[in-house]
Give the backbone structure.
Amino acid sequence: MAETAITTLSEPEFKRELAGVLPHLRAFARGLCGRVDYADDLVQEAAIRAWRARERFEAGTNFRAWTFTILRNHYLSELRKNSRQTDVDDEVVEHLLVMQPDQEAVVHLADMESALTQLSEDRREAILLVGASGFTYEEAAEICGCAVGTVKSRVARARTDLARLLGEEAR
């Protein structure tokens, strides 16, 4: 029985694909963890892991989903590893020490970020993948390693939760 060879991308093609997905990874990571500095660390580590595993990426498949899966798995590993550690929330300290800008759009964005951090981990992840990153339910289910119906349910509940949270903040 002959094995089929995996078609991989050339090094320049892989670099181009990886560079193109970095802004999307950064947005996803920031939504997952809620901290810009930690999100950048997650993206950097995901890019390094993707580069090291580039021979395992099959050309013609969804590069974005592949890299999002790498980032998500690394993030979840870090959560498990750090679950017994407690540290100061830098964002809370930052808000105590810095005056918020008075532009209305920035306030709305801050409200959305705050509401996202109040969602459960699985709902936040689902809404970020489907709503913010533009993945289909099927792609998001593949990234999360769960059923499509589960992702649809999480997204629906996340939308309901966000509407409630943002409605409460508007009052």
